[in-house]
Amino acid sequence: MISIIYPNLYVDSLFDINLQDLKKQGIRGIIFDLDNTIIPRDQKYFSADIAGWLLELKEHNFKLCIVSNNRRQHRVSYLAQALDIPYVYKAGKPGRKAFRRAMQLLNTDVSDTAVVGDQVFTDVYGGNRLGLFTILVVPLPGKEFWGTTFFNRRLEKLVLAKIKKRLS
Ligand SMILES: [Mg+2]
């Protein structure tokens, strides 16, 4: 039962995600969490290396979408527009609705879509519920939403050790 919270892949950094491996698995669409996954929550602009990496994904014909629980539409839309990719804000992850919406936007389905996020209980659990390929990434440094720190991160600590053990 607990395997529903295990990611398929756990990486220290976005740059450790092997694009060739994703291609080989038939992944065509990638759903990205926003805050602390591709940009620190307290930053307004993408770092040059992350923006460059995301654009590289597009050049490799991956279709990208941002799915964020952030309720501030202007932040999510501004950043998605900077990359010229679609987005879903106020996503309500781990609910499945936003992931389904993202796959509609990408014209992909559960068999060829991956999710990349920094949180076990929203990104990974939500993606696993639908059977997506889930990639957990160590959060970018930066301030977090207080609720995340007090609830999800504490629980996460308990399971991360197990995840590392299982995936190593
Ligand atoms: Mg996040």
Task: Describe the structure in your own words.
The protein has 168 residues and is of the alpha/beta class. It has a single domain, classed as 3-Layer(aba) Sandwich (Rossmann fold), CATH 3.40.50.1000. It is 43% helix and 14% strand. Helix 5 links the parallel strand 5 and strand 6. The protein is globular, with a radius of gyration of 15 Å. The model has no long low-confidence stretch (mean pLDDT 92). The structure holds magnesium ion. Magnesium ion binds next to loops.
Describe the SSE topology.
Blueprint: E1 9-11, H1 19-24, E2 29-32, H2 48-59, E3 63-67, H3 73-83, E4 87-88, H4 97-106, E5 113-117, H5 120-130, E6 133-137, H6 146-167
Parallel strand pairs: 1-6, 2-3, 2-5, 3-4, 5-6
Bound molecules: magnesium ion.
Magnesium ion binds at residues 33, 35-37, 117-119.
Strand order of the largest sheet: 1-6-5-2-3-4
Distance between the termini: 20 Å
Spans with pLDDT under 50 lasting ≥5 residues?
none
Would you tell me the overall average pLDDT?
A: 92
Helical stretch count? 6
What percentage of residues falls in helices of 4 or more residues? 40-55%
Instruction: Examine the coordinates and then state which fold CATH places here, giving the name of the CATH topology.
Output: Rossmann fold
* Helix-strand sequence: EHEHEHEHEHEH
The CATH architecture comes to 3-Layer(aba) Sandwich
Could you name the CATH homologous superfamily?
Answer: HAD superfamily/HAD-like
Derived structural class: alpha/beta
Query: How many discrete domains?
Result: 1
Count every beta strand, where a strand is a DSSP E run of 2 or more residues: 6
Principal-axis shape equals globular
CATH structural class = Alpha Beta
Strand content: 5-15%
